[in-house]
Amino acid sequence: MMGFLTGISVNIVCGQLAGLTGMKAHGHVAVDQAIFVLIHPLRINPAALATGLAALLIIALLHRTRLAQAGTVLAVILPTALVAVVGADNVATVKDIGSIAPGIPVPALPNFHLFS
Amino acid sequence: MVTGALAVAVIIMVQGAGVSEVARPGQLGPPPINKDVLAQGIGNVAAGLLHGIPVGGSLAQTGVNVRAGARTRLAAIACGAWMAVILMAFSGAVGEVAIPTLSAILVYFGLSSFRLGELRTIFGTGPGSQVAVVTTLIATLLLPVAAAVGTGVALSLMLKLNRDAMDVGLVELVPLDDGRLAACEPPSQLESDRVTILDVYGSLVFAGSWTLQGLLPKPASHVVLVMRLRGRTALGATFLKVMGDYADVLAEQNGRLYLSGLSDDVIEWLRQSGRVGGPMQLVGATPVLGESTYNAYLEGTTWLTAGHEEHGQEASGD
Question: Is B258 exposed, middle or buried (0-12, 13-18, 19+ CB in 10 A)?
Fold first, then answer.
């Protein structure tokens, strides 16, 4: 179990390095993607990296204080607000991955014709 | 689609089980894996009816949840409720969230989920565990999740079987004047014209019986070996081969093998194998510890002093 869970932790960290540095992920497994990021340092998006590091800093700083629980939320909101204010267009946002339809989804039966 | 769904189901089940085992703040007892897996299944079916895609337990998200103060399943429900509120009210704002911040959260909790203390402890328990941990770790990094877990399970099974097989021991039992048996180191060679009693410890399933074969003392001429097998229910074909061959070797030198302390089931199984009789005699267990072994000892002594072979007759046990 320990080997498996450790591997998952490593995979999580490696898989996020691309997002953290604003690069497109290239690689079959998470470790490949992390290595790609490390050997292409010139492709790092400085604005994205700064945003990511700022978020990390906020979580780390608030971790041992009374605001620890809010730390995660603040880590998302504050750097995002900064990006919006500064107008850094090259930092990827959630809507670049996909749009979120407003409102809650309505229950519906799935399309059984797709069953195979 | 069905095979894809099954693959996803297996992955969700395995990852969920892993998370269940690891992330249980302040809860005692074995993890409720059945309940957790069932809950994931029900949740995914419900999500399917709401245009959702299947999801499973995630170590990173559980980490975030626990650090935010989650203690009971209300946390998951509350999370869902808040999600609905945010979707309704803030879907536009959510779209503006910078992705590096989300990556940062996952990186932070991925890093903090490393259990270096436990890793170090497990590493210290010996080469078996070291091999298991490193192999499973590499498998998880390079293979898809289900394959990695399969590798880990197969490896653990092999290592356990190996450990059990190595853990077999022999003890010689020497009868005292009052009928009790005293334990001592087993001989490396049997003594001629004597009855030797041996007791076996450890699992004799599969490779354990091969280990036993290596431990058995060298035969001598005109000896009787009594092997105490009280309490054993699983013996297997390997054991039968090892002890059957040993009995034959003893018989070639005018010797005999007695198996004592046997339950009725084991006697039945041994008789069906056809190797019983002549060189290999069976003595059934009695409620008194050591009694059947002592009886076998007495029978063996009588047989030795009578000094002749018997053809295909079985000694009766009680």
Answer: buried
